[in-house]
Fold these 2 entries.
Entry 1:
Amino acid sequence: MPTKDDILKALSSVQEPELHQDIVSLGMVQNLAVCGGAVSFDYVLTTPSCPLKGMMELEATEAVKRVPGVTQVKVKMTAAVRKDPRLASALPAGIGNVVAVGSGKGGVGKSTVACNLAVSLAADGAKVGLLDADIYGPNQPQMMGVAGWQPSADADNKITPPSNHGVKVMSMGFLMEPDSPVIWRGPMLHGAIGQFFRDVLWGELDYLVIDMPPGTGDVQLTLCQSVPLAGAVIVTTPQSIALSDVRKAAAMFAKLNVPMLGVVENMGAFHCPHCGKDSEIFAGGGAKTLADKYGIPLLGAVPLDPGVCQTGETGRPISLSQPESAPAKAFRAIARQAAARVSVLGRKKPLEIKLTVTK
Ligand SMILES: Nc1ncnc2c1ncn2[C@@H]1O[C@H](COP(=O)(O)OP(=O)(O)O)[C@@H](O)[C@H]1O
Ligand SMILES: [Mg+2]
């Protein structure tokens, strides 16, 4: 009959594909039980959004099946997202990893990417928050279907955020009069952003996704410097005009030592439902060039699709409301790639964020 040691030895031959280490020494095999020829164990991934989940399960199952005497293998795929240790001193306990979605340019789809990233991660089973830090044009209340929500503070001056589609949402939009211009001066801005982190009862979160305002100004610097970010997702459209602005945002993250998780190319080829052909409305294909320049992955490409816009307007992100559509599939893949990068970067080298202001 096989012993636990036999099974662990077999599983030691299985490598975690991103970390290139065996899954036993990484502590990913837990609750191993061997009863006669029947083997069961938990396979604890670093994120429930692991893009290689299916393949990893198969590989581990096969490895155990090859052990003589094994007749049955039951693997329970589960996940434990590691908390970024640097957050302990910066934020209230509970928040695991902070991921910013940014771009040097407005209108490229940051908010769309941020909300679809958040709901895709939540749909995979992660605990997710979405912080709309675009104080100039907060879109998340509408995109996430929580417009009109009224914040109220408890006795300790803490705010419980609303939740929809499995994601907790906080936005400057909740605190502003509709259609009124906002004029922020430096200290107010810093105060407001600090409050978003400290005074919102986020609870336990694997990922807090931040929808950044466009550009590389005061808010962006404050955000990057008040909290150690697990990484940034850079959003661009394919054409080169967008890219020159996006390059500035990428340069800002690089200067501030914020690791870049990768580039998302949004508003790519439009698939015509009438003739069945693809049209490159915004030609250029420059996201790949940007990714290559900074040595970061292209996380994925989202097509230009009226469904993305409509579902944004009605507060039902396409990743949930039309899960089989091409944009939904792209967003799901992007979310999983980004989550995998957070895991890998967090394990490999906990980056020291230097809190220096760069001009
Ligand atoms: N892939 C896409 N296909 C169609 N419309 C899109 C797509 N991505 C974004 N949009 C639309 O473009 C507009 C700008 O997107 P938004 O996410 O608000 O950009 P940003 O936050 O960068 O300013 C929105 O109306 C949004 O619905
Ligand atoms: Mg926006």
Entry 2:
Amino acid sequence: MAETQVALPTLVHPVTPPRKVPKPKNGRERKARLDRILGELDKLFPAATCALRHENAWQLLVATILSAQCTDERVNKVTPELFRKYPTLEDFANAPQEELAGEIRSTGFFNNKAKSLIGAARKILADYKGQVPRTMDELLSVPGAARKTANVVLGTAYGIASGVVVDTHVQRIAQRLDLTKNTDPVKIEEDLMKILPEEKWILFSHQVIHFGRQICIARKPRCPSCPLDAVCYAKDKTLA
Ligand code: SF4
């Protein structure tokens, strides 16, 4: 599915310097601030979803494995032809590894990814009757599927809230918004799972990924257009 592009406000505002943004002093203020963040994300991206094109859980698993160290846009260019050539799990399981690697070359790390895709198809056929499993533990037994991949597949393909997807955008923005003090993705996920309502786990990740691509950009966040300016005391806000 294509990424939701929001129309940013045309009138930019002077950015509030980080030191002038009051930090929450107690649990009630922290909760109010989090509600404000979630509310603004809902307004910006009410129906955010995964940008990786797919028609079923297996295709999403393939696309997510390919998206490691690669943009969703690039993956979306590769997968249509890939799924035409290998329409079933059996086709992937029997694919010649070198040939498959050549076909996914542009996504980077193609030898490892080809090995993972073939291994994943074989594992799912052998142990899960050809169905992508629906639990975190089972998915983690599939080659190429670490916790982030499993969360993407469970949340987007099955609507199962197993955790919070922590990619580079979620990691950066959770830190900028002081929703975590950690740098390790697993610990960041644990922090987010503690403070977010479970029914928000899936949507929150998608919203933050869109937010990170369009507004809270890594190198130069677009703070003058950001509706979270008033609650953001990130040191790297762009004041100009
Ligand atoms: S865009 Fe700027 S104001 Fe908005 S969350 Fe990111 S750093 Fe904070």
